[in-house]
Amino acid sequence: MLQARLRYVFRRLAQAIPILLAIIIINFLLLKLAPGDAVDVLAGEAGSATPEYMAELRTKFGLDQPLPVQLAQYIGRVAVGDLGYSFRHEMPVAELILNRLGPTLILMVTTITLAVGVGILLGLLAATGLNSWRDTMISVLALVSYATPLFWVGLMLIVVFSINLGWFPTSGMETIAAFKTGWDRVWDIAHHLVLPAVTLSLFYLALYTRLMRASMLEQAGMDYVTTARAKGVSETRITYAHVLRNALLPVVTMAGVQVSSLIGGSVIVETVFGWPGLGQLAFESLFARDLNLLLGIFLLSAALVLLVNLFVDLLYTMLDPRIDLA
Amino acid sequence: MTDAPLTLGETPSALDRARAFWRLFLRNRSAVAGLVFLGLVILLAAVAPLIYPESPFRLAGRPMTPPFGPDYFLGTDTLGRDIMAGIAHGARTSLLIGVIATLVAVVFGTVMGALAGYYGGWIDDLLMRVTEVFQTIPSFIFAILLVAILTPSIQNVIIAIAVVSWPALARLVRGEVLSMKNREFVQANVIMGMSDARIILVQILPNCLSPIIVAGSLLVATAILIESALSFLGLGDPNVMSWGFQVGAGRTVLRRAWWICTFPGIAIMLTVLAINLVGEGLNDALNPRLRERTG
Amino acid sequence: MSGPVLDIRGLHIALPDGADRTHAVEDLSMALRPGEITCVVGESGSGKSLTARAVMGLLPDRVQATAGEIVFEGTDLLTVGPAARRMMRGEQLSMIFQEPMTALNPLMTVGRQIEEVLVTHTGLSSRERRERVLSLLTEVQLPDPERIIRAYPHQLSGGQRQRAMIAQALILDPKILVADEPTTALDVTTQAQILRLIRQLQEAHGTGVLFITHDFGVVAEIADRIVVMQHGRMVEAGPAAQVLNRPQAPYTRALIAAVPSLVPRNRKRAETRQVLAINDLGKTYGGSRGLFSRTPPVHAAKGVSLTLQRGETLGIVGESGSGKSTVARCIVRLLQPDAGVIDLDGIDLAPLTKRQLRPHRRRVQMVFQDPFASLNPRRKVGDILAEGPIVQGKPARDAYARGREILSLVGLDPRSADRFPHEFSGGQRQRIGLARALMLEPEVLVADEPVSALDVSVQAQVLELIDRIREELGLSVVFITHDLRVAAQVCDRIAVMQRGEVVETGATSAIFANPQHGYTQELFASVPGRAWLAPDLTEDAPRRAADVP
User: Is the dihedral of CA A258, A264, A269, A270 positive or negative?
Assistant: First the structure.
């Protein structure tokens, strides 16, 4: 069983390679699509440069080679973790990104846990109290959250909870120059985390709530529920032992699918709350016109999504015995 | 019990079917509310140049005038631009971009999905790989990249939104076509020698219309959200007023002038909410069976 | 004999507002005695299934029993509160369903699902529960019960799943077992085994069985008593032998008369001019070999050779997975065979490309199984019919005129052309499907289970129609069916298929009299009610005999 699962992981990893390759190629094409190349940027940084010097640089970077050769070289560089150089930050892109990965991961993991967990709970509450005030209230809340732009929610939460009530800090991940350590630091970060995590999770929470509710209702109409009733099983047990687990499957699938959109959302939330993660870095590079850095972030976040999807697939095999591991 | 000859009644015309659809749609009160509100937004967009003939970027009054005053109903922003005028003109931008980007995505997605679903084979393989890639790419970052590289303009924003939106639609259409393709009536058409183009266009696609309409209407809502987020980040067309831009412009003075961010945001939320409600109403009216099942 | 274990008196079941009638069941009175199997027979819409649900207390939300009583051991079940009712289910009254795949929870092992009955109703320890489950699984003759306990539903075959359902229903020795079409979704050989099992267990435990079915063959096989229902009302009831052999009510008589006889009809010899010859046909699916996975290829058809004479009906008989539909789809070239020859009057259709095929398409047409999926819901009947000739290059005016003629030919009002398919009943739709095939004046008609989705009375009419048209137009027919009764009535010759291969061919009368192959023999031994010869109901006889030469 364990061996079969390992084989499955390898198979999924192998299937992820062409997707990763495709994303690298898209990345490369975007790079080519952009006006000017690395040498122009370099020349711009360095002030005036003679055409001869620029041609020399182009040869040095291989930019005078035919496109397919450049692509091959690009793939080769990415494969060894070389994502290019950020002239703004005067640092390799890969290093810059790795420095900012931690805060983004903290935000993502918290958000996913919050959105999926609370979403499932609310969906369950709505479905079990179908058409009651509880259901109506949850459904209306979900509907409104589903329609609200992330950046606006963030700003409104700041107005209410930071500016007016003063419960949470407006931005950042830690109190500046406080140099806290140990549990104090954890507490400090958690305190800063509340608003961004709530903002980012609200939309997805609404999504999972609606999905869970619909999924519960759909499963409640299935034949096996009638069978369970014919056995004399109580309604409570039917809901929790039969319907719930079946209803979770589409929610888990959707959670996997939504990770990529969640990373997109983190650009906005990190910008609004000054959260020092990849999203904010992306926003900064956007205005510094640091394309290399932006593309590096793009590539890494896609890789991150692939990893999370692999994890979700694995989770799914544990939830659904019908998945063929062979 | 007998396979009796027909009892001839009235034949329902297209008109009757449209009426039946309306009856179902009107039964859904929240969908009707959504439709009414959406109608108001469209009206606002239509009359914006009449009631605010001047550019919404014009500096109309004193900066940061609070709302509900005598001159400016929703106040003015940091530079003294009339917020209500901005919202009226922003409605044009949001609806325009939402609808056109969706149309582009729907047309392209439908063509790709129909071809992949009907022919299978390498076209299908290719499409499925492409949509997998698109599901993996964080689509909002992709849209940011596209707009940043192509330079911000209405046209490029539309392109970026359509590019990140079509794969979901292609997947939907592919699934529908795939299930239709194995229906016996399509097989009968193959056996009578009908051409593929005719089978797809005349026999299959009309039967896939309801899910496409529903998905399309929800896509308009998503497109408006993406557009507002892009212009919030400063990636909108600099010559066109937009709700996201208004919110972004008021960000820095949140502490002093809450209304600058608040009202355009409410406009986005209500418009998207209205479109979602209409989309759900369409879904219920077009797929009555589904509604009964989910209570 | 003691009194009835279940006594239904004057039962009314009301349908929600907006249904096509007010009551699903009206004034039904019937009794079920311990140790007996009572079959409730009826066509779709007769109210038989809702009766079963009412007995179990499992009526859908908006459907209610409005009058009458269901007396079980002296108490009227309709007056028992929901909690007490629940405790009776699974212990006193149990139920098995039509589709064992969907009736079991896909995410729970079979063992746990059976055990759940014991968890709900008894205080047994987990070891005792396990022993009970194992002994029941043995009793329903499932191989390797230890493995079945740990298996998930999708890992069992259809027959095994239904056995597990039966074990689950009988584990607490209920007084009543309600069986709602429990064998309808199964192949005929599996059906025979399940019917035998229900009979054995019922005798061993003295259970009263309320058996819902639409199939008179199954009734003849298993019933002690019979209740016939039509449009929610009971039209006849009595001991099995009486109802089967001396039916009184006109409806029962018509139903029984419509059951195809297992005795092949005498048929005029067809011409001996061959129209279609299939030689060594093969079709393989799957067999992909990836880096990490390997799926073996499935031979849907292997070395199939058949011939069809002008004017005859060739039956291809087999169970699901036998490859009969694959062969049909190869003949009409919906599928491209991997090997072999499909010789239509000297032209080999097998290797032709789409374009090359187009001029020959007209000559081989098909009638499908599902009356609801076989007509485009968005097009009017007239358009559906005219499409074929128009595609083949006929002027539209002629095509529409011809459509109205053909509608009369298949027994429909020509004005039907202006209507949409959803306005027609299942039988009428099959007529339209047949009309569509006839529009192209084909030489060969392939009929893929054309009546298996229809009620038995409608079935007989459609079969007669196909036969009459074959005669009138000199068509040759390939008739795919799983039903030996149907085959006996319409086929001149039959080919029996199993796992992609033809195991036996011959004249229908010869094979029915003396099946040679072991599988054919098993198939015949499994036909439900084979020992029962439907009585000759004389007033119906003239109509039925009309097209027997």
Answer: positive
* Side-chain half-sphere exposure of B123, counting CA atoms within 13 A: 13
CA nearest to A305, candidates A10, A19, A6? A19
ipTM value: 0.84
At residue C545 the predicted structure's pLDDT band, cuts being 50, 70 and 90, is: very low
**For residues A230 and A90, which has the higher predicted lDDT (pLDDT)?**
A230
CA distance B243 to B263: 9
Do A230 and C89 count as a contact with CB atoms less than 8 A apart?
yes
Question: In the Cβ-directed half-sphere of B125, how many Cα atoms lie within 13 Å?
Answer: 3
Residue A287, CA distances (Å) to A42, B236, B238, C302 in order: 17, 13, 15, 67
Q: Which residue has the higher pLDDT, B235 or B21?
A: B235
Sign of the Cα pseudo-torsion (C336, C339, C342, C346, in order):
positive
Least confident of B74-88, B157-171, B221-235: B74-88
- pLDDT tens string A34-92: 776 666 666 665 566 677 777 777 776 666 777 788 888 888 888 887 777 777 777 88
Structure-model confidence comparison of residues A320 and A34, the more confident one: A320
- Read off the tokens for C141: 């003759």
User: How far apart are alpha carbons C24 and C49 in whole angstroms?
Assistant: 10
CB-CB neighbors (< 8 A) of C108 in chain A: 241-242
What share of chain B in percent tops pLDDT 70?
91
What distance separates the 2 farthest-apart alpha carbons in chain C?
Answer: 79
CB of B268 closer than 8 Å to CB of B228: yes
Burial of B210 (0-12, 13-18, 19+ CB in 10 A): middle
Rounded Cα distance between C100 and C83, Å, is: 26
Residue C141 CB contacts under 8 Å (≥ 6 apart), including other chains: C163, C197
Inter-residue contact B152 to B238 (CB < 8 Å): yes
Phi-psi region of A47 (alpha: psi -120 to 50; beta: other; left: phi over 0): left
CB A145 within 8 A of CB A137: no
The set of residues, in sequence order, having a beta carbon less than 8 Å from that of A171 and lying 6+ positions away, is A273, A274, A275
pTM for this predicted structure: 0.84
Residue the block writes with tokens 């039903």: C483
Q: What is the model's pLDDT at position A19? A: 87
Identify the CA nearest to B158 among candidates B88, B87, B240, B85: B240
Facing residue for C387 by CB, picked from B2, B12, B194: B194
Which residue in C230, C254, C366 is closest to B191 by CB distance? C366
Residues composing chain C: 549
Closest CA to B165 of B129, B124, B216, B128: B216
Digit-coded pLDDT (tens) for A106-127: 999 999 999 999 999 999 999 8
Q: Which two tokens stand for residue C137?
A: 């699984």
Cβ-defined contact of A143 to B273 (cutoff 8 Å): yes
Determine, for residues C86 and A321 on separate chains, whether the beta-carbon distance falls below 8 Å: no
Position C145, amino acid: P
Q: Where are the alpha helices (DSSP H) in C122-183?
A: 126-139, 145-150, 158-170
Alpha helices in C63-187 (DSSP H): 82-88, 100-103, 110-121, 126-139, 145-150, 158-170
Q: How many angstroms separate the CA of residue C295 from the nearest CA in chain A?
A: 10
- State mean pLDDT over C237-241: 92
CA geometry: angle at A217 spanning A213 and A218, to 5°? 115
C53: left (phi over 0), alpha (psi -120 to 50) or beta: alpha
What is the tens place of the pLDDT at every residue in C339-385? 999 999 888 998 998 888 988 999 999 999 988 889 998 889 999 99
Q: Which of the residues B1, B8, B16, B195 would you substitute to probe the C interface, choosing the one with the greatest number of C C-beta atoms within 10 Å?
A: B1
Chain A neighbors of C164, CB-CB under 8 A: none
Residue with tokens 């979700």, as numbered in its chain:
A312
> Which residue do the tokens 């029915």 mark?
C512
